[in-house]
Amino acid sequence: MSDLVEDFLAREKDGLAGLEDEIPQAFQENSNDFNDDNDMNSFEAFETKPISTEVPEKIKKWREEQLLRLQDKDAAEEKAKEALRKQAEKELEDWYKRHEESIGKTKTMNRNAEKECVADVEEIEPGTEWERIAKLCDFTQSTKASKSIKDNSRMRSIILQLKQTPLDREKA
pTM to 2 decimals? Predict the structure, then answer.
């Protein structure tokens, strides 16, 4: 196994042997300083290309086109917003009209119902009390009441019983 390691190290030394000549002399002299002090100035010996701050023509053209596209999209968005505002205003006006109409209809129905009720009260005739009570009570509903409505089935049954067999006024 040690022979394999020695062979590997020998091959690597042969492969790296020419690299010492390629490293600039200034770096070889300052390499100890760099390792000791972590001084970044030791790389001054290398030639560096200045970084170009000029923007390529293609990028300038793309930016201009992108700016125009964004302006077009903004204008289209503003038009769409204005159209939605107008549509919302129209729908709101329509809703108010329908609401006012329904309130007017409800008022009219309530007034008519009140007139009928007052007319019925004025036409009191003896012996028609139970018919009036039966008319005011809704006997068309089933005896099963939902949980939100109070159960009036007992009252209904008593009223119907009294209607069918009226009390004699002379006995009472």
Answer: 0.37
